[in-house]
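In the current project phase, we have settled on a layout for protein records. A sample record is reproduced below.
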Amino acid sequence: MNPGQNCMSSCHSHGFAFGGTVYDSTGKGLSSVQVGIKLTGGQFYSVFSGSNGNFYYSGSGLNLAGADIRVRNANGELQMPITSSSSGACNSCHDGSATPRITAP
C-alpha cells in the first residue's frame, strides 16, 4: 500500500468506505492507531492503522457528513474537525499542503 496516497481515487479504488494514513510528529506512518468514526445516526466504526500507517474500512454507503471522527493511541485521543461533507477519502484532503496530515496524539 502507498502511504499518503488517496486510496479512494479512480486509479486506486478498492471499494473502501473510508481510508487514509496516520503519521507521527516526524511524518512517518504510524501503526496501531485507532481511527473511530461515529455517524450522526449513532453507528460507530473503528479500525486500526497497519505497519505503514494506512487504515481503511471496507464497505460502502456510509454518510460521513457531520461524523465525529477521532484518532487515538496510548498517548491520548484527538478529535478531527467536523465537516459538513466528507467523502471518506481522508488523504485527498489531509495531504500535508492546505490541510494538515492526520497525526496521532
